[in-house]
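QA checklist item 7 of 12: single-chain prediction sanity check.
[x] sequence parsed
[x] length recorded as 306
[x] structure emitted
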Amino acid sequence: MQYTVKSPVTFKGVGLHSGAPVRMTIHPASAEYGIWFRRSDVTRQDNLIAARWDSVNPARLCTRIENADGVSVSTVEHIMAALAGLGIHNALIEISNAEVPILDGSAAPFVRGILARGMLQQHAPVRVLRILEPVEVREGDAVARLDPAQGFEMRFEIDFADTAIGRQVKHLDLSNGAFVRQLCDSRTFCRSADVDFMRANGMALGGTMENAVVVDGDRVLTPGGLRHSDEPVRHKMLDALGDLYLAGAPILGRYTGRRAGHALTASLLHAVFSRPGAACLTVVDSRVAARLPGVGVRQEDLALCA
């Protein structure tokens, strides 16, 4: 069965990079609709943007999607991760500006809002993108790869000079609500040395200590410290899940990321879809569908963040 949100859910905040105020509402959508964004502030151009890999227009430090008229929405990765992690297949996301609100820097507020409204089961088969052979892309030391697997798994490795982060490695089977319990509350992070540079270049204008983890050497400057000792690598996994959901369907495979970012994961999807025989879109039976992210998630799972 496919799922959508049971009723509209609205979020208000500012864009991380623009600092501009934004209102965003996730509306229910019919079966087979997919995920689409609609820019309510755009009236003289096509204001619908498909949340798909072939709509991605490279941007620094976030994922941006754009339609043929050049109308775009950026920083979509956290809301896409929430939708993927909750098993939402269909939604129309109305947004009043060009950037998704950052809220607390994680996907938890989106997850909490959607779970509070509830999810509606739709009588339509679940399709997955089944990975049939390994696909890998590289850029310097960074690697992103997809391999065949029976469910959806993820392994991620990061390595930063700041000892507050250092080298972190995590592997997860993301079936049955693992995203909600283990990843959704992990926040975006940055090095203190990068903050001034980003702001001088018109980025992170909406960033605060309330919506990002800021580190300086061996110190975590954000009040309250880390939510998890390995919060940075968990957040990278959160980002990757959201970026991979731009495949247009849940992925049946194993994702491996090493120092990978948004652009490399986007390149990985391009490689998958451009290589004949690398993957296929297929309907899965109830046994396989039951192991996908989001199946069986409950409101209580949010309180179990590990």
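[x] summary fact logged: Residues 231-244 form the longest helix (14 residues).
[ ] second reviewer sign-off
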